[in-house]
Amino acid sequence: MSFTRLTVRGTLAVFAGCVAAAAGGAAPAAAASAPSVPVEVPLAGVEDALHVDAPHLSTAAPLPIPGTPEGPTYDEQHLLPQGVVPRLPLGTELPATAAELPVPQLLPTDTVKEVGLHSEASPVHAESPGASVNPPLTGPRAERLGLPDLSAPQLGLSVPDLRAQPGADLGLG
């Protein structure tokens, strides 16, 4: 009976060790690349139906990852905090894309057999717009025994931001 318990415990220990090793090995690889959903366009039916060479297209759909928004900032000059509606940062990576389009040979001297478009993966960073509002009152003033002063109402909107460096190569082959 005790030998069976040791065997079961040993098997469970080995299994737990394998799971921990697999998780430890997979975590750096998953963290290195941005998440995306691969997209393969099935065009094999075009070849059968039309009796032509079908183009090949492979890419991925990027999945944006929301970042941590900055919290509101407080200022003695304003009654309400600035940045009441915070800007939400988003980050992702434009995936690599490959497209090859076969070109029929029209002239006997044509050496072009296909047109290809290839793009490398590139990072994308975006921030949503934010807003700040200030009512027509200031904060409490010590010289007025804690009463606020009147001020002009303020509304501030921050512009959205998008930064990316996409690029592609178009070639004849």
Could you please describe the fold and organization of this structure?
There is one protein chain. A five-stranded antiparallel beta sheet has the order 1-2-5-6-13, with no helix packed on it. Strands 3-4-7-12 form a four-stranded antiparallel beta sheet, with no helix packed on it. Helix content is 22%, strand content 36%. It is an alpha+beta fold and 173 residues long.
Structural class, from helix and strand content? alpha+beta
How helical, in percent, are the residues? 10-25%
Let me know the average pLDDT.
78
Task: Kindly report how far apart the N and C termini lie.
Answer: 71 Å
| Number of E-state strands | 13
Feature tags:
five-stranded antiparallel β-sheet, 2 helices, 36% strand, 173 residues, rod-shaped, single chain, alpha+beta, 22% helix, four-stranded antiparallel β-sheet
Please describe the topology of this protein.
Blueprint: H1 2-32, E1 36-40, H2 44-50, E2 56-62, E3 65-66, E4 89-94, E5 97-102, E6 114-119, E7 122-127, E8 131-134, E9 137-140, E10 148-150, E11 154-157, E12 161-164, E13 168-172
Antiparallel strand pairs: 1-2, 2-5, 3-4, 4-7, 5-6, 6-13, 7-12, 8-11, 9-10
Question: What's the short story on this structure?
Answer:
The protein is of the alpha+beta class and about 170 residues long. It has 2 helices and 13 strands, in the order H-E-H-E-E-E-E-E-E-E-E-E-E-E-E.
